[in-house]
Design a protein that fits this description.
The protein has a domain of 87 residues. It has two helices and seven strands; from the N terminus they run H-E-E-H-E-E-E-E-E. It is globular, with a radius of gyration of 18 Å. The C terminus is likely disordered.
Length: 126
């Protein structure tokens, strides 16, 4: 067994409680990618798609991860606070807004999102 094979064997990622080889992660993650939906505030066209979002859970936090270039100031690109997740209760489909919106800053000391990227807490939809 070579060092490369040993390293590949020990590198795995937990996806829904099952550990999969790290090299297979991109193919497995495709099942959790959805169109990124944003509320428009329009009565006729209530939702708008703009890119994709990875729906996942990390340490009991339910997350929707998008890239920074998909969101903007609300003009040409939708505001991050307008992001919604669709949930069905059997008879109707609800567009649930996030409880908060964060913009991570990797490599900088400031780890919290600036006020312009924070959404006020939405009603608890549990």
């Amino acid at each position: 067994m070579t060092v490369t094979t040993l390293a590949n064997a020990k590198m795995s990622v937990c996806v829904n409680g099952a550990y999969i080889p790290f090299k297979n992660t991109p193919d497995t993650m495709q099942r959790f990618v959805r169109p990124a939906l944003f509320s428009t505030g329009d009565e006729v066209w209530e939702l708008r798609t703009f890119g994709t979002a990875l729906i996942c859970r990390y340490r009991n936090l339910y997350l929707a991860v998008t890239t920074g270039h998909q969101v903007g100031d609300g003009n040409l690109k939708p505001s991050p606070e307008k992001f919604v997740v669709l949930a069905t209760d059997g008879q109707r489909t609800l567009a649930i807004p996030p409880k908060s919106v964060r913009k991570p800053r990797i490599g900088e000391e400031q780890r919290t999102a600036p006020a312009s990227y924070r959404a006020h807490a939405a009603p608890n939809h549990r």
